[in-house]
Design goal:
Chain A: Keywords: Cell membrane, Membrane, Transmembrane, Transmembrane helix, Transport. The complex is a heterodimer of chains A (253) and B (312). Chain A is mostly helical and 253 residues long. Helices cover 79% and strands 2% of the residues of chain A. Classes of the chains: A mainly alpha (253), B alpha/beta (312).
């Protein structure tokens, strides 16, 4: 294992993050506050409670997931796309590193950033609503797995993308709708039966449900299914990355 | 054992274009090999294949005895690459970039070594500058510093002086000479023949994915080099004297000088007899000088011959 290489890539990626630490910190704080003003105060005051939890508190896990997923994807995809774009990828390709080391460096850094954002949102949310976390260990596990698996997905998108438009395409056209339709701001049980069936095909439902369970003990799907879903998703992403490096798809000519 | 062993390497791109058509080449330890070829000859593809950036279709490459595919870690650890394009992260500082490169190759931090590299390349004063603030020449040096950060035994320089001014080119040559003194094997690609002539020990000529020739620079120039003998006459003549008709002589327009082209490698150059015949014909010789053909002539000749063969 080339540990110095993993550390070098990780540090390099984190440096980009620290260069814009203020933006990294301020923007999630502002957007979370806005969500609370709109969903929590304006709309939430009419919804009152969802399954015994105040609406303001109910949306916190979904809000965190929304940001963590989009941040993980955008950080990881940009992280690997940019060296491709400016040509510095030659150095990675000619270095004595294997795919696992490259992935650990890039995905590790992207996941760290996403985790940081998640924690900032959690902290901000605590100012607006009373939060209880029933299963803190499960919460941390769900959060970490989500950071990792969506960073992996972002990494794949970054390798796949041939231009900046494509880089934005998947997050915009696929991920954001899936997250919004994934029960981030409502319980799946609030949907009409037909849509409930459709919702179960959305992988994000399982993540949000499991994450929400770790806060309130409420879930749309059994917790074991949620864990299986995210483990399966991570495995698929890992397999895809392994294949990419084995075949050199879109990186090695 | 050669430091780099290239055996029957072929590279066919997905579109069907064959960039390397069975290249074999040994690169000896401590030498400077110049790979000479026109644009699109396959120089960069060959280097990319050795460094692991391009996957070869067929054949094998070993660096320090390690196969570049199956033992890529051991092979790549020995190799440093200075790419042709200015591929640098614009927001990174010079020193951070060099540290990054060292780490990427699995080496522990060594600030003293990095300082030595940066000082040697006159980058020490710029170590905390962002790459985007540097001039083109400075960026080129940063690329070299990054390639040297992990103490490679073999250094590839892909067109190191393309688009570089004369002074910087001389600088670059000095740097290469210094590295050679440290025992680093250097392979550089260039389409400036002057460059190969100035710094290489051996010259390889590559065109259309084939190595046409690899030879000691000096012997290449003697073996294939032709010389031109120019004889200046005291009194101009109207035509080449008939006694000299079996020589292929060229008379200058003013009739004041005769030029004779001969092969330095031939058994007899015919110069002695020519001078005798000139004296017999009553021509007084005022001055004589010779000029050696440059590598460029050799190169152009080789490429032209390959084209003729392809056409035939």
């Amino acid at each position: 294992m080339n540990l110095p290489a993993i550390w070098a890539i990780y540090k390099f990626e984190m440096a980009r993050f620290f260069r814009s630490i203020l933006q990294s910190f301020v923007s999630p704080v502002i957007s979370t506050s806005l969500y609370f003003v709109v969903f929590g105060a304006a709309i939430g005051s009419r919804i009152d409670q969802v399954e015994g939890v105040s609406y303001g508190a109910f949306i916190v896990p979904g809000l965190i997931m929304l940001s963590v997923m989009t941040q993980a994807i955008s950080n990881a995809s940009f992280g690997i796309y940019f060296p491709k774009f400016i040509g510095t990828i030659y150095e990675l390709l000619s270095a004595p590193v294997n795919f696992l080391e490259i992935v650990l460096g890039f995905v590790g850094a992207a996941a760290t950033k996403a985790l940081f954002i998640g924690v900032v949102i959690l902290g901000t949310a605590a100012f607006f609503v009373d939060l209880q976390i029933m299963h803190p260990v499960a919460m941390v596990i769900f959060l970490l797995l989500t950071c990792m698996s969506f960073s992996l997905l972002g990494f794949i998108i970054g390798i796949w993308a041939r231009n900046f438009e494509q880089l934005q395409l998947v997050p915009l056209l696929v991920v954001t709708p899936l997250v919004f339709l994934g029960g981030s701001f409502y319980s799946i049980s609030m949907l009409p039966p037909a849509w409930q069936t459709v919702a179960y095909f959305n992988p994000v439902v399982y993540l949000v449900s499991g994450f929400r369970w770790s806060f309130f003990g409420l879930a749309d799907v059994p917790i074991a299914v949620s864990l299986l879903a995210i483990a399966g998703f991570t495995a698929i992403c890992l397999a895809a990355v392994w294949w990419i490096f084995k075949t050199g798809w879109r990186i090695r000519t | 054992m050669p430091t780099v062993e290239i055996r029957d390497v072929r590279k066919r791109y997905d579109g069907g274009f064959e960039a390397l058509k069975g290249v074999s080449l040994d690169i000896e330890e401590g030498e400077i090999l110049a790979l000479l070829g026109p644009n699109g000859a396959g120089k960069t593809t060959l280097i990319s294949a050795i460094c692991g950036i391009t996957r070869i279709t067929d054949g094998s490459i070993r660096v320090g005895g390690h196969d570049v595919v199956t033992e890529f870690r051991a092979a790549r650890s020995l190799v440093g690459l200075v790419p042709q394009e200015m591929n640098l992260e614009p927001f990174q500082t010079v020193i951070a970039g060099v540290r990054f490169s060292r780490g990427l190759f699995g080496k522990r931090p060594d600030e003293a070594l990095i300082e030595r590299i940066l000082r040697r390349l006159s980058l020490w004063d710029k170590r905390n500058a962002k790459v985007m603030e540097l001039s083109g020449g400075m960026k080129r040096r940063v690329l070299i510093a990054k390639a040297l950060a992990h103490e490679p035994r073999v250094l590839f320089l892909d067109e190191p002086t393309a688009g570089v001014d004369v002074e910087l080119r001389r600088d670059m040559w000095d740097t290469v000479a210094e590295l050679k003194r440290d025992g680093v094997t250097i392979i550089l690609t260039t389409h400036y023949i002057e460059e190969a002539e100035a710094i290489a020990d051996r010259v390889g000529v590559i065109n259309k994915g084939e190595i046409l020739l690899v030879e000691d620079k000096a012997s290449l120039m003697t073996r294939m080099g032709q010389k031109e003998l120019t004889i200046e006459l005291t009194d101009p003549v109207d035509s080449v004297p008939p006694a000299l008709s079996d020589y292929d002589l060229r008379l200058s327009e003013d009739g004041g000088s005769l030029t004779y082209r001969y092969d330095t490698g031939a058994d007899r150059t015919g110069i002695g007899r020519l001078m005798g015949l000139l004296a017999e014909a009553g021509c007084q010789v005022r001055d004589v000088h010779t000029a050696q053909n440059s590598l460029e002539d050799i190169f152009v000749g080789l490429v032209a011959r390959q084209e003729e063969e392809t056409a035939a």
